[in-house]
Amino acid sequence: MAIETVTPARTLRVLAIAAVVTGAVAVLTPLFGSTYIDLGRAFRGELPDAQIFFGVRWPRTLVALLSGGALSLAGVLFQALLRDPLATPYTLGVSSGASLGAVAAICLGLHTIAGLPALWVAALLGAGAILLIVLAVSAEGRRISSFTLLLAGVTINSVVMSVIMLLHNLASVGQSFAIVHWLMGNIDQVDAATLAWMAAIILPVSAGICLMARQWNLMAVGEDWAATRGASPHRLLLIGYLAGSLLTAVVTAVTGPIGFVGLVVPHALRLRLGSDHRLLMPASFLLGASFLAICDTLARTVLAMEIPVSVVTALVGGPFFIALLRSRRRSLWL
Amino acid sequence: MSVRYELSGAGMSYGAAEVVRNVTLTFDRPQMVALTGPNGAGKSTLLGIMSGLRPGFTGSCRLNGREITAWKRRDFAREVALVPQSLKLDFPFTAEQVVLMGRTPYAGGMFESPEDWAAVERAMDVTDTLEFRARDFRALSGGERQRVVLASALAQEPRALLLDEPTTFLDLQHQLTIYQLLRKLSQEGMLVIAVTHDLNLAAAFSDRVVAMKKGQVEADADPCEALTTDRIRSIFGVEAEWLKRSGGKSWIAYGD
After folding, report:
1. Is residue B193, in this structure, part of any structural domain at all?
2. Predicted local confidence at residue B140, as pLDDT
3. Is A3 domain-assigned?
4. CB–CB of A2 and B52 under 8 A?
5. Is the Cβ pair A5, B94 closer than 8 Å?
6. Residue from A228, A275, A277, A278 to probe the interface with B (highest B Cβ count within 10 Å)
7. B18 lies in a domain?
8. Which residues pair with B82 in a beta bridge?
């Protein structure tokens, strides 16, 4: 199978299709739910359709879109930086850091920190702390290599996960329920301010990452390869790690850890589009956004009660990934 | 103007092991240089120093009068290209995409300009790689991969080309075509420095042979002078003999 060359025309064509899909998902998924609503009535501002569409379901769809896009893009980025097809946004410990922060806030019974939701703030603080620890451990002077970054990240991730288990073990029954709920990953109702904050961080950071696609191509081949083609691998590794972690931390703080999006979407697209990040990255953002929004719609509609979205992504993503692993043995395609 | 490399007292240690010691060399004209020596002689490390990948070296290594650590990487990559010993990819890039990456030092935007594409065509044409341009790099044979990597370095349009054992995986025919190509490039104004273990290829194609042993330069001269039987014995520890063929070509036979 030949992979087509990435030209401006092809990039435009593929991204236009991806954008149309994402747009359709954004408009159509809020229509599904326990109460029937009519799109026309909603857009004419008639109640209660407009209230349900714009006030309740639409913000939730937007959170799912932003989260799915950010997680997929962070997945592509970490896979390229670590040259590890199995890397995910969670490989380097940022999301466990966020979880630890959130779990600590639950155990301490905090509700607000400085007027903001405690879970949010604690998760971001936790993610930031782990990020700094991983950087401090893996940096050798001003240099940093993807291999030490990977080892440091994976190790610290495991340590943090066991601290979370310890806290969980010590928690009361009520707290334990809240912890489990958080760790399962959920897209809940968010207020407009939170949504605005997410968009204000995720959109520019993602655009910046996509604009550096040619550098990520070089890094996906190797650090010496990048260095002899005019790039600085240490700087790119640092920028990529910080940008990917920022995306992951913002999403995880709001939704908790949602698995498989950052692994499955990049791989599926790499199989179709090849590895050129100029096409792969924006396509992953758009279609990762659609994937999570669809999974979230399934999560709140298939059963009478709502199920955690990470259950849906894992049920869809898990079998897909196993098939991928099996085909990896047989073909050259990853 | 050709490139000018001046190494003076260059050295490199990994921990306690000093792998390159007090190397002083000048390359000041386009020529084909064979860099040879037994395993562990420091050839690859020397190439690493010269290509800017070993910033921790001691002594001095200047390109066109400027210390290579002071060069901007992008400017440096337009002057010097490196062909590594082998390249392993974890992701599905096509041969053409690998070659296209050689144009990154010239990138003005997100996509390649017509000049970039012209350079890629030329590089793939001379390395005989056009026929599998759309194939997954990982599906190519070792020799095909090596030629694609060479094409990527040529797409950089460098004035100095450093190669680490460029023909290890190549069949005889491609070994010869690649060495003929390298020789032609050097005659057209490029400084070509190739690490090789094949003394016959070195003798047949290069203008100058630099032989290293235990991190130091043991010989630096034209092939006949650098590869005398005495030198081959002291550097490589093998007996060898120069044989002359009737056509005037000579080659080195090993063993007693």
Report:
1. yes
2. 92
3. no
4. no
5. yes
6. A228
7. yes
8. B162
pLDDT of residue A3: 64
Paired tokens of A100: 């630890």
pLDDT in tens, B4-52: 999 999 999 988 889 999 999 999 999 999 999 999 899 999 999 999 9
Nearest to B92 among A83, A231, A274 (CB): A274
Question: How many C-beta atoms surround the C-beta of residue B196 within 10 A?
Answer: 24
CATH number at residue A184: 1.10.3470.10
Residue at token pair 């950089």: B156
Q: How far apart are CA B139 and CA B92, in angstroms?
A: 9
State the pTM of this model.
0.91
Amino acid at A324: L
Q: Cβ separation of B111 and A7 shorter than 8 Å?
A: yes
Asked whether residue B194 is domain-assigned, the answer is yes
The count of domains in chain A is 1
Quick check: A145 contacting B, CB < 8 Å? Answer: no
What CATH code is carried by the domain that includes residue B190?
Answer: 3.40.50.300
B chain contacts of residue A83, beta-carbon cutoff 8 Å: 90-91
Q: Establish if B107 belongs to a structural domain.
A: no
Q: Which residues form the domain of A124? A: 8-330
A147: CB partners within 8 A, 6+ apart: none
Encoded tokens for A330: 């047989």
What value, to the nearest 5°, has the Cα angle with vertex A231 and ends A225 and A237?
Answer: 85
Domain count, chain B: 1
> Is A81 contained in some domain?
yes
Q: Look up residue B119 and give its DSSP letter.
A: H
Cis, peptide link before residue A48, omega less than 30° from 0: yes
B81–A228 C-beta distance less than 8 A: yes
Residue A333 to residue B92, Cβ atoms within 8 A: yes
Contact A278 B97 (CB under 8 A): no
Do B251 and B203 form a contact (C-beta atoms < 8 A)? yes
How does the average pLDDT of chain A come out, rounded? 88
Integer CA distances (angstroms), B235 to A226, B17, B202, B238, in order = 35, 20, 15, 8
Q: Which residues contact B74 (CB under 8 A, 6 or more apart)?
A: A230, B105
Domain encompassing residue B54: 5-86+159-254
Quote the minimal CA–CA distance from B179 to chain A in Å. 22
pLDDT(B162) > 70: yes
Q: Residue A1 domain-assigned? A: no
pLDDT digits (tens, 9 = 90+) for A212-233: 999 999 999 999 999 999 999 9
Express each pLDDT in A147-165 by its tens digit.
888 888 899 999 999 999 9
Query: What's the pLDDT at A259?
Result: 84
B41 Cβ partners below 8 Å, 6+ apart?
B212, B213, B214, B215
